[in-house]
Design goal:
With 177 residues, the protein is of the alpha+beta class. Helices cover 25% and strands 15% of the residues. The radius of gyration is 17 Å and the shape is globular. The protein starts with 7 loop residues before the first helix and ends in a 21-residue tail after the last helix.
């Protein structure tokens, strides 16, 4: 069972704990679900943004942006992220929530799928953008949370399976038509 209102408020709280004063929900929480945290509605087209977007801001105080803090945190368990500290990427954080366990299916829009593919970190030593999947499961019971850095690599190597619910339609472009 998919939940239409993801546990984004809990992820927002986690980001506030990690980023302290560098976290601004009105800037970083780029989803219509931020109203569940008591914030103003997100007004840009929701399909264009991840649940949260943490851009790198080289002009931030002390030269330590929110993106730098996340990169430093990730570098503790993901060695390639150490190289990212020189020029941290923008993080696009997708939150996916289900009432069932870790292996339950969750929805992934075409836009989210394409964002993961466009921003695959595994192809670059220091990517400009990285998609981080935050998988919240067993909501309402003994809740769990998993983090999947570089969602496309997880899809590419089979750690996260995807399937199309509807057909894809294609057309070969022919000159003169």
């Amino acid at each position: 069972m998919f939940l239409t209102s993801p546990n984004s408020p809990q992820v927002s709280d986690l980001l506030r704990q990690l980023l302290s004063t560098r976290y601004d929900p009105l800037t970083h929480w780029t989803s219509v679900h931020r109203v569940h945290g008591g914030h103003a509605p997100y007004t840009l087209p929701n399909e264009l943004s991840a649940s949260f977007t943490i851009p790198h801001d080289p002009d931030s105080a002390d030269n330590i942006s929110a993106s730098t803090i996340i990169t430093n945190y990730l570098a503790k368990s993901f060695e390639p992220a150490v190289a990212w500290l020189i020029d941290p990427p923008t993080f696009h954080i997708e939150v996916k929530t289900t009432a069932e366990g870790r292996g339950a299916e969750f929805s992934l829009s075409n836009e989210e799928f394409e964002r993961a593919r466009a921003y695959m970190a595994s192809e670059s030593e220091r990517p400009r953008d990285v998609v981080l999947l935050v998988r919240v499961f067993n909501v309402g019971e003994k809740q769990g949370v998993d983090f999947f850095l570089d969602l496309w690599s997880w899809i590419k190597f089979g750690g996260v399976g995807v399937r199309a619910v509807h057909e894809f339609w294609g057309r070969v472009r022919v000159e003169g038509e």
